[in-house]
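Problem: given the chain below (314 residues), write out its structure.
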Amino acid sequence: MDAAEYPTTLTIGFFSGSDFVMPMLKTLAKSNKNTLPYQVKLSAIGTKPPYTHRSKTHTNNLYQFAQEHTILLITPDSFRGMRSELEPILAKLDMIIVASYGHIIPQWALDAPRFGWINWHPSLLPRYRGPAPVQYTLLDDQPSTALTWIAMNAGMDTGDILLQKPFAISPNDTFDSIIDTAMTLGCDTIFEAIDLQIQTKLGSFVATVQDESAATYTHFITKDAGLIDIGTTTASALKNAVRAYVHFPTVRIYITQYPGLTRIDEVGNCLPANANEIVGTLVQKNAKSYLVCAEHTLLNLKKITLWDGQQLTL
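Solution.
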């Protein structure tokens, strides 16, 4: 590509509603991390608006970062009915980066920046499109996943793939560790993804079209998803739920020895159970506590929280 086709300065917007993206935001804000033949300038941050709880106003880390660094804040509750207000603002940006934002972006907004929008997505697209890719990956006990950068379109994570970085999942990985790995890979590749998007728009790079026949979708996780019926759930399935739901909604079950619902905070290995061991009870093996689960399986429970808030290390 002729260097003259590149912009001299690329004005970037960064949109997210999750605090865990802060390493990527800070990487983008540090010009010394940029090895591109043009300057990248973080010019706007899109995130959740402030909210009031018990007479106190709360803001997330992205909002605070924008205020501290005098960066334009864009905080719509929704893009619906906001075209006349937002389109002129978005059109002043050359590109917008999205990571765990949670809003549907309409076509008029996608068309506003010169070089469009790109999205950081923590799954091996086209698998696990949608709002909960990490949780579904863990629930399905997948051996690997990926960080995927896509050129956004109006579909749900259906855009062409700019680059993809697969990585293995260990049996003890949780939502947090997978997000951390995907975020580290995002920081390492963010400027490469920006450049590939520009090359795509200028016609010197062809992004990979997703295989629709291989696509799967995720849905928002509800609070009820954490209520697990131990009578129909194997030890491995329960362990995967604990790994996936570490923050929300958390896993809650009934254990025979304790009244009310018990939250499972940390688990260990799985073992086969004896035929006479009763589902829902705790048994001791090798000085460890195991919960008897469905299909004659056992799950080592390490930390739990009882219905009254009491935390126990088993």
